[in-house]
Every structure is written in structure tokens, then in C-alpha cells.
Amino acid sequence: MRLSRYFLPILKETPKEAEIVSHRLMLRAGMIRQQAAGIYSFLPLGKRVLDKVCNIIREEQNRSGAVELLMPTIQSADLWRESGRYDDYGKEMLRIEDRHERELLFGPTNEEMVTDIFRSSVRSYKDLPLNLYHIQWKFRDEVRPRFGVMRSREFLMKDAYSFDLDQAAAETAYHRMFVAYLRTFNRCGLKAIPMRADTGPIGGDLSHEFIILASTGESEVFCHRDFLQMTVPGEGVDFDDPAALAETVRAWTTPYAATDEMHDEAAWNALPDEAKMAARGIEVGHIFYFGTKYSKPMNAVVAGPDGREIPVHMGSYGIGPSRLLAAIIEASHDENGIIWPKAVAPFDVGLVNMKPGDGDCDRACEDLYARLQAAGLDVLYDDQDTRAGAKFATMDLIGLPMQVIVGPRGAKAGEAEIKMRATGERLTLPLDAVVPRVLS
């Protein structure tokens, strides 16, 4: 993509309303634009990162055996009355009426709707286990939306819902999602620590939050240093092996880890001082097992092996992709801007023409642009006639993992400079060696 044809509205000044790093950088880098309190448009650069995050989430959900569907944003109030949550949910739920005075709501979550879909189609235990997920926009009318997309009113959510015959099978479903979440966040360049969590309005009696450590985190967390060395399961993980899944979950839940709300001071004090890690954290995922909380009142039952009707056991599993973007920035930035992990970067490489109009520069850049794209790389080519300082500042701000810089002197000598965004390392190479180095 040529920058001269792209829409990248960079801001030189930080908007006053931006309180945290991710909000400042997302606005300045032209990733988002506020439309109303807690409601944002994702501009092209932000949309590219959002799509990459969603693709990773989708791949890991599919790998674990979950099946994708798409449910609407607007839901009937009648479903929520069946579960008993319509009046309990509070003012965060945006309640509306259509022209026929039917009561509707802008969904904050989808337990009721997916339960209705399940009960209308699944009749036998032979159709279990089942896990349905979608990636859809949600709305929660936060009393004080803040921190940009970190705590917005409208947000993108991946929510999955498992259905199983009994508690043992439901716990295996929970373990599948637990492991899938470890892999998802690891692929996004994050070390996520699972911490026992309060179930809140979702309900149930088993829940974990996945927390990344960041100095700008919204909550205080306490965990064992062992988490920093733990290895996330690889691509070969067998999601059909309940014992292996349970062992992985056991390993990742044995060391002490707790948010401020669940912190056990006695257990914490029992740890040796060198093992303690008190820090700030950001929640990037939340999983719940809640048994028959929804299936009983909504009559979501299946015929068991003996023919008797049994209410299914359920769980729900959420990741907020839009929030995850902000969390990645909070964990990976410096004074110059964002530092994207390679897997979620909006472009793989930034190609900088230091002097458009110079014959040697133009020829070298056009050749590199063609060869980088032919190698399957997403390239943002800065072909604009602007100051060198502005070009460098823009590339550092938007945080592409690698920059290829071509100036008139280097182009004449048949060379280009490569800069690694994360480390600042620079090296000069012959033009023919640039593409192999970028690919390495």
C-alpha cells in the first residue's frame, strides 16, 4: 500500500481526553476516531490490526473444536426474562423498543440467545459436546466510559458457549477453552496469566481471568514468578485428550495468581519473597463454567442415554478483540510510539523513500516494493514528499516491526538501511539482500 493513497490521519498533538498510553497512541497513529462517549470508528490502520487479532482468535477457536456462527446485536427482552436476567442486569443494558412497541435490547452478551438456538435444534446427548462461538459487536452502557477502547460502551467480542451432558464433560470443555486462550494470547505476542476470578453477572461457580502484566494496568494483581518461565502448549496440543488438557490447566493454576478482588493475603504471605510478583494487570479474556444456570429456566434439555431429559451444562468464554489491541499497546510501546508484535502488525514492513523524485531512490524503492510484495509481505510504502524527520516519526509511531529506508546516497551505492523497531538495531545491506533479510 502506498502511503500517498492510504488514509492515515496522524495527529501531532495528543488529544486532551486521552488518559492512558494506548488511547493516546491509537488516536495519534490514526487507528481510531471517537464518534460519541465510549463509541469509536476503527480507521484503516486500526482495522488491519483488529482483523489480524480476530484471525488468530478464530484459528485457535476452530483448532479447539468450536464452531462459528453469527448472532444479531439486537435481542428480544423475552429471552432475558426467561433466564431471569432482564431486570437483574442493571442500567448497563441498553433497552429499546421497535415501532410495534416490542421490547428489545442491544446485547451485552449472548447466553440467552445461544441457549435458544441450542434448544430449538439439539435433542439428544449424541449431539454433544458442542461449542458455538461468534465475533460480534456488543454494547454495555458504562456509567463512565474511559481509556479509549479499553473501556468503551460499544466493543467487539468473541464469545463462545459450550454445551455438555454433565459437569465432568463441561469441565473438559472449560479446559479446552483455557488452553486455547493460552495459545491465542501467546500468538498475539502476550504472556497471559490465568487468575481465579469472580463470576459477576454472568453467574456460575468456576471462572478465570486472563491477565497481562503492564505498568499501566487497570488493576493490581499478585502472582508467582514461575509464570514468566512457563511454556504455552504448541500447535500439536490434542484437544481431544481430556487428561492432558486437565494436566495443562493444573500446571497453569497451581502457582499463586489472583486479582485484587480474589487476593488471599495469607496464601500470598506464605510465598518466599523472591517468588512474589505484585504488579498492574489488564484483563484480556474471561472464561466461565455455570452449569445449568441458563439451561434449567430456559428448558434447554437433551435426551440422555436412558431417554430421560437432562438440562445441559454450559460455559461461556469471552475475548474482546477491540480491547486486546489496547492491551497489546500498553504492554509493547516506547516513547516514540507503538511496537507491534509481528503477528498482529498492520503491515509487515515500512518502506521509506527518503527523497521521492530522485531517480536512484525511486528505482530502488519501486523494485523493493515489488519484490517485498511478491514475497508475500504486507508493505506500507512511504512515497510522500515530506521531511525526513516526519517520515521517521510516523514509522516509529505506527510501530511496524521492520523499516527499510532508502536514501539517495545509499540508493546510488546500491544499498538500503534496515531498522528493527523493537530494538532500534540498524544495518546497511546491498539492495539484493534486503528481501531475504526481511524474510529471515
Descriptive tags:
alpha+beta, nine-stranded mixed β-sheet, 440 residues, five-stranded mixed β-sheet
Description:
Strand 1 (32-36) and strand 2 (39-42) form a beta hairpin. The protein has 12 helices and 23 strands. Helix 2 (44-63) crosses helix 8 (321-331). 31% of the residues lie in helices and 28% in strands. The protein has helices at residues 21-28, 44-63, 77-83, 111-119, 167-187, 242-253, 265-269, 321-331, 359-374, 388-398, 408-413, 431-439; strands at 32-36, 39-42, 67-68, 74-76, 94-97, 103-106, 130-139, 154-164, 192-196, 206-213, 219-224, 257-259, 276-291, 301-303, 309-311, 313-319, 333-334, 337-338, 349-353, 379-382, 402-406, 415-420, 426-430. The radius of gyration is 24 Å and the shape is globular. The chain is of the alpha+beta class and 440 residues long.
